[in-house]
Amino acid sequence: MKKFRALLLSAALLGAGIQQATAEWVSIGQGVYYEGLLTYYGEEMGIKRGMSWPVNIEEDSDTKGLYRLAPYSGKNPIAELFGSSDDSSYMVIHAEDPAKVWMEDFDSYDQYYCFTHMVPESGWEGEAAEYGTLSDGIISFPAMCMATIDLTDPEGLWHSANREGECKIVIPGSGSEIEDYSLYLDYNYCGVNNKVPVTITAGSSVKSVKYVLQEGLVEADSKTETNADLDAATMQLVAAEGKEIAAGKQTVECSVHGLHSMLVIAMDADGKAHTGKVAYIYGDRSDDSEWTSLGKVKYNEDLFAGYYEGLPQVELQVELQENKNTRGYYRLVNPYAEYEGNCIENHDGHNHYIYIHAEDPQAVWVENSPIGIDFGDGYGEARVTSNVALMLEYGLSLEEAIAGSEEGIGQINNNVIEFPAYGLWIGQTGWFNGYWTSTGQNFRVHLPEVSGIDSITSDKTAETDTQYFNLQGIRIDRPAAGLFIEKRGNNVTKRIVR
Protein backbone atom coordinates (compact mmCIF):
# COMPACT_ATOMS: atom_id res chain seq x y z
CA MET A 1 0.00 0.00 0.00
CA LYS A 2 1.39 3.39 -0.95
CA LYS A 3 0.38 6.94 -0.22
CA PHE A 4 1.02 9.79 -2.63
CA ARG A 5 2.75 12.06 -0.15
CA ALA A 6 2.22 15.15 -2.32
CA LEU A 7 -1.53 14.77 -1.84
CA LEU A 8 -1.26 15.18 1.90
CA LEU A 9 1.23 18.00 1.71
CA SER A 10 -0.80 19.95 -0.83
CA ALA A 11 -3.89 19.58 1.30
CA ALA A 12 -1.95 20.76 4.33
CA LEU A 13 -0.68 23.81 2.50
CA LEU A 14 -4.19 24.73 1.45
CA GLY A 15 -5.23 24.41 5.10
CA ALA A 16 -8.51 22.61 4.35
CA GLY A 17 -9.88 19.87 2.17
CA ILE A 18 -12.64 20.33 -0.39
CA GLN A 19 -15.27 19.01 2.00
CA GLN A 20 -14.35 21.56 4.66
CA ALA A 21 -14.42 24.42 2.18
CA THR A 22 -17.89 23.65 0.83
CA ALA A 23 -19.72 22.37 3.92
CA GLU A 24 -21.99 24.45 6.14
CA TRP A 25 -21.27 23.31 9.65
CA VAL A 26 -23.82 23.26 12.44
CA SER A 27 -22.98 22.36 16.04
CA ILE A 28 -24.80 19.27 17.28
CA GLY A 29 -23.45 19.47 20.83
CA GLN A 30 -20.72 18.05 22.98
CA GLY A 31 -19.25 14.64 22.34
CA VAL A 32 -16.10 12.88 23.55
CA TYR A 33 -12.80 12.41 21.73
CA TYR A 34 -10.56 9.44 22.65
CA GLU A 35 -6.92 10.07 21.71
CA GLY A 36 -5.28 7.43 19.55
CA LEU A 37 -3.16 9.42 17.09
CA LEU A 38 -0.61 11.38 19.13
CA THR A 39 -0.04 8.33 21.31
CA TYR A 40 2.40 7.32 18.55
CA TYR A 41 4.83 9.84 20.08
CA GLY A 42 4.73 8.00 23.38
CA GLU A 43 4.92 8.59 27.09
CA GLU A 44 8.23 10.44 26.82
CA MET A 45 6.07 13.38 25.74
CA GLY A 46 3.53 12.74 28.48
CA ILE A 47 0.91 11.45 26.01
CA LYS A 48 -0.66 8.49 27.76
CA ARG A 49 -2.96 5.81 26.51
CA GLY A 50 -6.62 6.22 27.39
CA MET A 51 -6.78 10.01 27.27
CA SER A 52 -10.23 11.42 26.49
CA TRP A 53 -12.00 14.76 26.81
CA PRO A 54 -15.19 16.58 25.73
CA VAL A 55 -15.25 18.21 22.30
CA ASN A 56 -17.75 20.20 20.31
CA ILE A 57 -18.89 18.28 17.23
CA GLU A 58 -20.38 19.81 14.10
CA GLU A 59 -22.31 18.21 11.22
CA ASP A 60 -22.76 19.37 7.65
CA SER A 61 -26.24 20.83 7.31
CA ASP A 62 -26.70 19.17 3.89
CA THR A 63 -24.87 15.85 4.45
CA LYS A 64 -25.99 13.64 7.30
CA GLY A 65 -23.05 11.80 8.82
CA LEU A 66 -20.37 14.28 7.71
CA TYR A 67 -18.79 15.52 10.94
CA ARG A 68 -15.93 17.70 12.03
CA LEU A 69 -14.25 18.50 15.34
CA ALA A 70 -11.18 20.39 16.56
CA PRO A 71 -9.84 17.84 19.07
CA TYR A 72 -7.04 20.01 20.46
CA SER A 73 -8.97 23.26 20.89
CA GLY A 74 -9.68 24.85 24.27
CA LYS A 75 -8.91 23.02 27.51
CA ASN A 76 -7.67 19.50 26.90
CA PRO A 77 -4.76 17.31 28.06
CA ILE A 78 -2.76 17.79 24.85
CA ALA A 79 -2.99 21.59 25.05
CA GLU A 80 -1.95 21.33 28.68
CA LEU A 81 1.15 19.34 27.73
CA PHE A 82 2.11 21.43 24.71
CA GLY A 83 1.51 24.77 26.43
CA SER A 84 -1.09 25.95 23.90
CA SER A 85 -4.27 24.78 22.21
CA ASP A 86 -4.84 24.33 18.48
CA ASP A 87 -8.18 25.98 17.77
CA SER A 88 -7.97 26.04 13.98
CA SER A 89 -7.22 22.44 12.98
CA TYR A 90 -10.33 20.36 12.26
CA MET A 91 -10.63 16.61 11.90
CA VAL A 92 -13.23 15.79 9.23
CA ILE A 93 -14.97 12.40 9.51
CA HIS A 94 -17.06 10.80 6.77
CA ALA A 95 -19.69 8.58 8.38
CA GLU A 96 -22.35 8.86 5.67
CA ASP A 97 -22.02 5.08 5.41
CA PRO A 98 -21.80 3.78 9.04
CA ALA A 99 -19.98 0.66 7.83
CA LYS A 100 -17.38 2.61 5.88
CA VAL A 101 -16.22 5.54 8.00
CA TRP A 102 -13.04 7.38 7.05
CA MET A 103 -11.07 10.45 8.08
CA GLU A 104 -9.74 13.14 5.77
CA ASP A 105 -6.04 13.99 6.06
CA PHE A 106 -5.62 15.82 9.34
CA ASP A 107 -2.74 18.13 10.24
CA SER A 108 -2.48 19.89 13.58
CA TYR A 109 -0.28 22.36 15.40
CA ASP A 110 0.85 24.25 12.29
CA GLN A 111 1.26 21.02 10.30
CA TYR A 112 3.78 19.62 12.78
CA TYR A 113 1.64 16.55 13.46
CA CYS A 114 0.11 15.17 10.25
CA PHE A 115 -2.12 12.10 10.07
CA THR A 116 -3.77 10.19 7.27
CA HIS A 117 -6.29 7.36 7.07
CA MET A 118 -4.91 4.65 4.80
CA VAL A 119 -7.92 4.31 2.49
CA PRO A 120 -8.32 5.04 -1.23
CA GLU A 121 -10.40 8.15 -0.46
CA SER A 122 -7.25 9.66 1.10
CA GLY A 123 -5.02 8.71 -1.82
CA TRP A 124 -3.72 5.36 -0.66
CA GLU A 125 -3.34 2.54 -3.15
CA GLY A 126 -4.12 -1.13 -2.48
CA GLU A 127 -7.01 -3.32 -1.45
CA ALA A 128 -6.30 -3.71 2.27
CA ALA A 129 -8.12 -0.54 3.33
CA GLU A 130 -9.57 -0.72 6.84
CA TYR A 131 -12.48 1.60 7.46
CA GLY A 132 -13.97 2.74 10.73
CA THR A 133 -17.54 2.11 11.82
CA LEU A 134 -20.37 4.09 13.43
CA SER A 135 -22.34 1.96 15.88
CA ASP A 136 -24.52 3.02 18.83
CA GLY A 137 -23.35 6.59 18.42
CA ILE A 138 -19.65 5.74 18.65
CA ILE A 139 -17.19 6.09 15.76
CA SER A 140 -14.36 3.56 16.05
CA PHE A 141 -11.27 3.07 13.92
CA PRO A 142 -9.37 -0.25 13.71
CA ALA A 143 -5.81 -0.54 14.94
CA MET A 144 -3.01 0.44 12.53
CA CYS A 145 -5.40 1.95 10.00
CA MET A 146 -3.77 5.39 10.14
CA ALA A 147 -0.29 6.77 9.60
CA THR A 148 1.78 9.80 10.49
CA ILE A 149 4.88 11.49 9.14
CA ASP A 150 7.37 11.75 11.98
CA LEU A 151 9.28 14.98 11.40
CA THR A 152 12.18 13.61 13.46
CA ASP A 153 12.66 10.89 10.84
CA PRO A 154 15.30 12.22 8.38
CA GLU A 155 13.86 10.02 5.63
CA GLY A 156 10.33 11.39 6.10
CA LEU A 157 8.78 7.93 6.16
CA TRP A 158 5.23 7.06 7.15
CA HIS A 159 4.73 5.38 10.53
CA SER A 160 1.60 3.60 11.66
CA ALA A 161 -0.70 5.47 14.06
CA ASN A 162 -3.72 4.48 16.12
CA ARG A 163 -1.70 1.39 16.88
CA GLU A 164 -4.03 0.09 19.57
CA GLY A 165 -7.26 1.15 17.88
CA GLU A 166 -7.98 3.67 20.65
CA CYS A 167 -9.10 6.56 18.44
CA LYS A 168 -12.86 6.89 19.01
CA ILE A 169 -15.47 9.64 18.88
CA VAL A 170 -18.73 9.64 20.80
CA ILE A 171 -21.40 11.51 18.85
CA PRO A 172 -23.75 13.80 20.85
CA GLY A 173 -27.25 12.48 21.35
CA SER A 174 -26.11 8.89 21.00
CA GLY A 175 -27.49 7.91 24.37
CA SER A 176 -23.99 7.04 25.56
CA GLU A 177 -23.23 8.55 28.95
CA ILE A 178 -20.64 11.30 28.72
CA GLU A 179 -18.77 11.96 31.95
CA ASP A 180 -16.32 14.81 32.30
CA TYR A 181 -13.98 14.51 35.27
CA SER A 182 -11.26 16.58 33.64
CA LEU A 183 -9.02 18.73 35.82
CA TYR A 184 -6.64 21.48 34.73
CA LEU A 185 -4.25 23.62 36.77
CA ASP A 186 -2.87 26.95 35.59
CA TYR A 187 -0.38 28.46 38.01
CA ASN A 188 2.65 30.62 38.58
CA TYR A 189 5.66 29.21 40.36
CA CYS A 190 5.54 31.83 43.11
CA GLY A 191 3.59 34.84 44.37
CA VAL A 192 3.63 37.92 46.58
CA ASN A 193 4.07 37.09 50.27
CA ASN A 194 4.42 33.43 49.24
CA LYS A 195 0.76 33.28 48.19
CA VAL A 196 0.84 31.57 44.82
CA PRO A 197 -2.04 32.07 42.33
CA VAL A 198 -3.55 28.82 41.05
CA THR A 199 -6.52 28.54 38.69
CA ILE A 200 -8.47 25.26 38.85
CA THR A 201 -10.72 24.22 35.96
CA ALA A 202 -12.91 21.18 36.63
CA GLY A 203 -15.17 19.20 34.28
CA SER A 204 -18.95 19.24 34.48
CA SER A 205 -19.18 15.89 36.31
CA VAL A 206 -16.83 16.97 39.12
CA LYS A 207 -18.70 17.54 42.38
CA SER A 208 -15.79 18.53 44.62
CA VAL A 209 -12.07 19.25 44.51
CA LYS A 210 -9.52 18.55 47.24
CA TYR A 211 -5.83 19.30 47.59
CA VAL A 212 -2.80 18.60 49.77
CA LEU A 213 0.23 20.90 49.78
CA GLN A 214 3.34 18.83 50.45
CA GLU A 215 6.87 20.10 50.98
CA GLY A 216 9.38 18.85 48.42
CA LEU A 217 8.88 16.77 45.29
CA VAL A 218 5.98 14.44 44.55
CA GLU A 219 6.56 13.34 40.98
CA ALA A 220 3.74 13.01 38.50
CA ASP A 221 3.32 9.33 37.62
CA SER A 222 3.82 8.92 33.88
CA LYS A 223 2.60 5.31 34.09
CA THR A 224 -0.92 6.17 35.21
CA GLU A 225 -3.63 5.70 32.64
CA THR A 226 -6.15 8.21 31.24
CA ASN A 227 -5.88 11.85 32.31
CA ALA A 228 -4.52 11.33 35.84
CA ASP A 229 -1.02 12.39 36.86
CA LEU A 230 -1.28 10.87 40.34
CA ASP A 231 -1.45 7.18 41.07
CA ALA A 232 -4.44 5.64 42.86
CA ALA A 233 -2.73 5.50 46.26
CA THR A 234 -1.83 9.19 46.16
CA MET A 235 -5.34 10.19 45.08
CA GLN A 236 -6.80 8.14 47.96
CA LEU A 237 -4.47 9.94 50.37
CA VAL A 238 -5.61 13.34 49.11
CA ALA A 239 -9.27 12.24 49.31
CA ALA A 240 -8.79 11.22 52.95
CA GLU A 241 -6.58 14.05 54.19
CA GLY A 242 -7.01 16.89 51.72
CA LYS A 243 -8.78 20.21 52.08
CA GLU A 244 -11.67 21.16 49.81
CA ILE A 245 -10.99 23.98 47.39
CA ALA A 246 -13.34 25.62 44.91
CA ALA A 247 -12.68 25.67 41.19
CA GLY A 248 -11.65 29.03 39.77
CA LYS A 249 -8.90 31.43 40.82
CA GLN A 250 -7.35 30.64 44.19
CA THR A 251 -4.18 31.39 46.15
CA VAL A 252 -2.14 28.79 48.02
CA GLU A 253 0.39 29.83 50.66
CA CYS A 254 3.78 28.14 50.94
CA SER A 255 4.79 28.06 54.59
CA VAL A 256 8.45 27.08 54.15
CA HIS A 257 11.27 27.89 51.78
CA GLY A 258 11.65 25.94 48.54
CA LEU A 259 9.70 23.53 46.38
CA HIS A 260 6.15 22.39 47.22
CA SER A 261 3.97 19.86 45.41
CA MET A 262 0.29 20.81 45.26
CA LEU A 263 -1.67 17.57 44.78
CA VAL A 264 -5.21 18.13 43.49
CA ILE A 265 -7.99 15.62 42.79
CA ALA A 266 -11.42 15.79 41.12
CA MET A 267 -14.15 13.77 42.88
CA ASP A 268 -17.66 12.55 42.15
CA ALA A 269 -20.73 12.85 44.41
CA ASP A 270 -19.69 9.70 46.32
CA GLY A 271 -16.24 11.06 47.13
CA LYS A 272 -14.40 8.87 44.64
CA ALA A 273 -11.34 10.46 43.05
CA HIS A 274 -11.30 10.27 39.25
CA THR A 275 -8.48 12.60 38.21
CA GLY A 276 -5.35 13.84 39.95
CA LYS A 277 -2.95 16.61 39.01
CA VAL A 278 0.17 18.13 40.54
CA ALA A 279 1.39 21.74 40.47
CA TYR A 280 4.93 22.67 41.51
CA ILE A 281 5.02 25.93 43.43
CA TYR A 282 7.65 27.64 45.55
CA GLY A 283 8.00 29.57 48.76
CA ASP A 284 10.82 32.04 49.35
CA ARG A 285 11.24 32.36 53.09
CA SER A 286 14.81 33.68 53.04
CA ASP A 287 15.49 36.56 55.43
CA ASP A 288 16.81 39.57 53.52
CA SER A 289 18.63 40.76 56.65
CA GLU A 290 20.87 37.69 56.40
CA TRP A 291 22.24 38.72 53.02
CA THR A 292 24.82 41.35 52.14
CA SER A 293 25.26 42.91 48.73
CA LEU A 294 28.56 42.46 46.89
CA GLY A 295 27.49 44.92 44.22
CA LYS A 296 26.77 44.24 40.58
CA VAL A 297 28.67 41.51 38.77
CA LYS A 298 28.83 40.14 35.25
CA TYR A 299 26.34 37.36 34.55
CA ASN A 300 26.74 35.50 31.25
CA GLU A 301 23.22 34.27 30.42
CA ASP A 302 23.10 30.80 28.94
CA LEU A 303 20.12 29.15 30.61
CA PHE A 304 17.88 30.18 27.73
CA ALA A 305 20.47 31.03 25.07
CA GLY A 306 21.81 27.51 25.56
CA TYR A 307 18.42 26.01 24.76
CA TYR A 308 16.37 28.34 22.58
CA GLU A 309 17.63 28.66 19.04
CA GLY A 310 18.00 32.28 17.99
CA LEU A 311 18.51 33.71 21.47
CA PRO A 312 21.91 35.39 21.73
CA GLN A 313 24.28 34.87 24.62
CA VAL A 314 24.32 38.14 26.53
CA GLU A 315 26.27 39.60 29.44
CA LEU A 316 24.10 41.16 32.14
CA GLN A 317 24.95 43.29 35.15
CA VAL A 318 23.20 41.68 38.13
CA GLU A 319 23.34 42.29 41.86
CA LEU A 320 25.12 39.51 43.74
CA GLN A 321 24.46 38.89 47.41
CA GLU A 322 26.21 36.59 49.86
CA ASN A 323 24.73 34.97 52.93
CA LYS A 324 26.19 36.43 56.11
CA ASN A 325 26.09 33.11 57.92
CA THR A 326 27.33 30.82 55.14
CA ARG A 327 30.44 31.79 53.22
CA GLY A 328 30.20 31.06 49.52
CA TYR A 329 26.38 30.88 49.51
CA TYR A 330 25.32 33.45 46.88
CA ARG A 331 22.19 34.62 45.15
CA LEU A 332 21.66 36.66 41.99
CA VAL A 333 18.86 39.20 42.53
CA ASN A 334 16.27 39.50 39.73
CA PRO A 335 18.81 38.16 37.22
CA TYR A 336 16.66 39.00 34.18
CA ALA A 337 15.61 42.52 35.17
CA GLU A 338 17.88 44.00 32.50
CA TYR A 339 17.42 41.27 29.92
CA GLU A 340 16.39 42.92 26.65
CA GLY A 341 15.00 39.85 24.93
CA ASN A 342 11.33 39.28 24.16
CA CYS A 343 10.31 38.26 27.66
CA ILE A 344 8.12 39.24 30.58
CA GLU A 345 9.41 39.85 34.10
CA ASN A 346 6.86 38.41 36.53
CA HIS A 347 8.02 39.98 39.78
CA ASP A 348 4.60 41.38 40.81
CA GLY A 349 5.95 43.00 43.93
CA HIS A 350 8.49 40.35 44.92
CA ASN A 351 12.00 39.37 43.91
CA HIS A 352 13.36 36.27 42.23
CA TYR A 353 16.76 34.74 42.78
CA ILE A 354 19.22 32.22 41.45
CA TYR A 355 20.63 30.61 44.60
CA ILE A 356 24.20 29.36 44.16
CA HIS A 357 26.00 27.11 46.65
CA ALA A 358 29.73 27.69 46.28
CA GLU A 359 30.76 26.88 49.85
CA ASP A 360 33.05 24.33 48.24
CA PRO A 361 34.54 26.00 45.13
CA GLN A 362 35.10 22.57 43.60
CA ALA A 363 31.47 21.46 44.06
CA VAL A 364 29.17 24.33 43.10
CA TRP A 365 25.45 23.75 42.62
CA VAL A 366 22.25 25.75 42.11
CA GLU A 367 19.04 25.43 44.11
CA ASN A 368 15.73 24.57 42.46
CA SER A 369 14.00 27.95 42.31
CA PRO A 370 11.79 30.14 40.07
CA ILE A 371 13.54 32.98 38.28
CA GLY A 372 10.63 35.16 37.20
CA ILE A 373 10.98 35.18 33.43
CA ASP A 374 8.31 34.35 30.86
CA PHE A 375 8.98 34.64 27.15
CA GLY A 376 5.27 35.05 26.40
CA ASP A 377 5.34 32.05 24.05
CA GLY A 378 2.75 30.06 25.95
CA TYR A 379 5.31 28.03 27.90
CA GLY A 380 4.93 30.08 31.07
CA GLU A 381 7.26 31.02 33.89
CA ALA A 382 10.71 29.53 34.18
CA ARG A 383 12.68 27.83 36.93
CA VAL A 384 16.25 26.60 37.26
CA THR A 385 17.95 23.70 39.03
CA SER A 386 21.12 21.61 38.97
CA ASN A 387 22.07 17.96 39.16
CA VAL A 388 22.81 18.16 42.87
CA ALA A 389 19.48 19.82 43.68
CA LEU A 390 17.59 17.18 41.69
CA MET A 391 19.31 14.38 43.58
CA LEU A 392 18.61 16.04 46.93
CA GLU A 393 14.91 16.03 46.04
CA TYR A 394 15.09 12.26 45.61
CA GLY A 395 16.35 11.85 49.16
CA LEU A 396 20.11 11.65 48.71
CA SER A 397 22.43 13.35 51.20
CA LEU A 398 24.47 16.32 50.01
CA GLU A 399 27.62 14.20 49.93
CA GLU A 400 25.87 11.51 47.88
CA ALA A 401 24.36 14.10 45.52
CA ILE A 402 27.73 15.75 44.89
CA ALA A 403 29.41 12.40 44.35
CA GLY A 404 26.67 11.36 41.91
CA SER A 405 26.88 14.66 39.99
CA GLU A 406 30.61 14.69 39.37
CA GLU A 407 30.36 15.30 35.61
CA GLY A 408 27.71 17.99 36.03
CA ILE A 409 29.12 19.84 39.01
CA GLY A 410 30.05 23.52 38.88
CA GLN A 411 33.36 25.03 39.93
CA ILE A 412 35.00 28.38 40.59
CA ASN A 413 37.81 28.92 38.11
CA ASN A 414 39.71 32.21 38.00
CA ASN A 415 37.08 33.75 40.29
CA VAL A 416 34.29 32.78 37.88
CA ILE A 417 31.46 30.37 38.69
CA GLU A 418 30.90 28.06 35.73
CA PHE A 419 29.15 24.80 34.88
CA PRO A 420 29.85 22.06 32.35
CA ALA A 421 27.36 20.77 29.79
CA TYR A 422 24.29 19.16 31.36
CA GLY A 423 25.07 20.75 34.70
CA LEU A 424 22.06 23.10 34.81
CA TRP A 425 18.41 22.61 33.90
CA ILE A 426 15.44 24.85 33.14
CA GLY A 427 11.70 24.15 33.20
CA GLN A 428 8.61 26.18 32.31
CA THR A 429 5.11 25.84 33.73
CA GLY A 430 3.45 25.38 30.35
CA TRP A 431 5.92 22.90 28.87
CA PHE A 432 4.99 19.43 30.11
CA ASN A 433 4.32 20.75 33.63
CA GLY A 434 7.82 22.15 34.06
CA TYR A 435 9.72 19.30 32.42
CA TRP A 436 13.46 19.81 32.97
CA THR A 437 15.72 20.50 29.98
CA SER A 438 19.52 20.60 30.26
CA THR A 439 21.32 23.82 29.40
CA GLY A 440 23.82 26.35 30.73
CA GLN A 441 27.19 25.19 29.40
CA ASN A 442 28.24 28.84 29.02
CA PHE A 443 26.58 30.05 32.23
CA ARG A 444 29.05 32.29 34.10
CA VAL A 445 28.93 34.43 37.23
CA HIS A 446 31.97 36.65 37.69
CA LEU A 447 32.69 37.12 41.38
CA PRO A 448 33.87 40.56 42.49
CA GLU A 449 37.38 41.34 41.32
CA VAL A 450 39.98 41.57 44.05
CA SER A 451 42.71 44.23 44.02
CA GLY A 452 46.23 43.18 45.01
CA ILE A 453 45.65 39.39 44.78
CA ASP A 454 46.00 37.28 41.68
CA SER A 455 42.98 35.10 40.89
CA ILE A 456 44.15 31.50 40.80
CA THR A 457 42.58 28.71 38.82
CA SER A 458 40.85 26.24 41.14
CA ASP A 459 42.79 23.08 41.96
CA LYS A 460 41.46 20.20 44.03
CA THR A 461 44.87 19.97 45.71
CA ALA A 462 44.90 23.66 46.72
CA GLU A 463 45.39 24.58 50.34
CA THR A 464 42.23 25.41 52.28
CA ASP A 465 43.72 27.74 54.95
CA THR A 466 41.87 31.05 55.19
CA GLN A 467 43.91 34.24 54.74
CA TYR A 468 42.87 37.89 55.04
CA PHE A 469 44.08 41.00 53.17
CA ASN A 470 43.26 44.68 53.12
CA LEU A 471 42.05 46.34 49.91
CA GLN A 472 45.67 47.03 48.92
CA GLY A 473 46.43 43.31 48.98
CA ILE A 474 48.48 43.38 52.19
CA ARG A 475 47.98 40.33 54.45
CA ILE A 476 46.37 41.13 57.79
CA ASP A 477 44.74 39.39 60.73
CA ARG A 478 40.97 38.97 60.46
CA PRO A 479 39.58 42.46 61.15
CA ALA A 480 36.84 43.05 63.69
CA ALA A 481 35.02 45.52 61.42
CA GLY A 482 35.16 46.99 57.93
CA LEU A 483 35.71 45.77 54.39
CA PHE A 484 38.43 43.19 53.74
CA ILE A 485 39.45 40.41 51.35
CA GLU A 486 39.25 36.71 52.24
CA LYS A 487 41.29 34.04 50.45
CA ARG A 488 40.03 30.55 51.30
CA GLY A 489 41.93 27.95 49.34
CA ASN A 490 41.69 29.28 45.79
CA ASN A 491 38.42 31.16 46.35
CA VAL A 492 38.88 34.92 46.78
CA THR A 493 35.99 37.18 47.87
CA LYS A 494 35.34 40.56 49.41
CA ARG A 495 33.72 40.59 52.86
CA ILE A 496 32.41 43.14 55.28
CA VAL A 497 32.18 42.94 59.04
CA ARG A 498 29.77 45.37 60.68
Care to describe what's here?
The structure is a single chain. With 498 residues, this protein is mainly beta. Helix content is 9%, strand content 37%. It has 6 helices and 37 strands. The strands form 8 sheets. Strands 5-4-3-2-1-12-9-8 form an 8-stranded antiparallel beta sheet, with no helix packed on it. A hairpin with a 7-residue loop joins strand 24 (353-357) and strand 25. The chain is elongated. Mean pLDDT is 83; it is low at 1-18, 223-227 and 451-464.
Q: Overall pLDDT, averaged?
A: 83
Compute the number of helices: 6
Helical fraction equals under 10%
Which stretches are low in confidence, meaning pLDDT under 50 for 5 or more residues running? Answer: 1-18, 223-227, 451-464
Strand order of the largest sheet: 5-4-3-2-1-12-9-8
Cα-based radius of gyration, to the nearest Å: 28 Å
Shape: elongated
Query: Strand percentage, roughly?
Result: 35-45%
Provide a compact summary of the structure.
The chain is mainly β and 498 residues long. The longest helix has 10 residues, at 5-14.
Keywords:
37 strands, elongated, eight-stranded antiparallel beta sheet, mainly beta
Write the layout of secondary structure elements.
Elements: H1 5-14, H2 18-22, E1 25-34, E2 52-60, E3 66-69, H3 77-82, E4 91-94, E5 102-103, E6 106-108, E7 113-117, E8 133-135, E9 138-140, E10 146-149, E11 158-161, E12 168-170, E13 183-187, E14 195-202, E15 208-215, H4 232-241, E16 243-244, E17 248-253, E18 258-267, E19 273-283, E20 291-301, E21 314-323, E22 329-333, E23 344-345, E24 353-357, E25 365-366, E26 369-370, E27 373-374, E28 382-386, H5 387-393, H6 398-404, E29 411-413, E30 416-418, E31 424-428, E32 437-439, E33 444-446, E34 466-469, E35 475-476, E36 482-488, E37 491-497
Antiparallel strand pairs: 1-2, 1-12, 2-3, 3-4, 4-5, 6-7, 7-10, 8-9, 9-12, 10-11, 13-14, 14-17, 15-16, 15-18, 18-19, 20-21, 20-33, 21-22, 22-24, 23-27, 24-25, 26-28, 28-31, 29-30, 30-33, 31-32, 34-35, 34-36, 36-37
Helix pairs in contact: 5-6
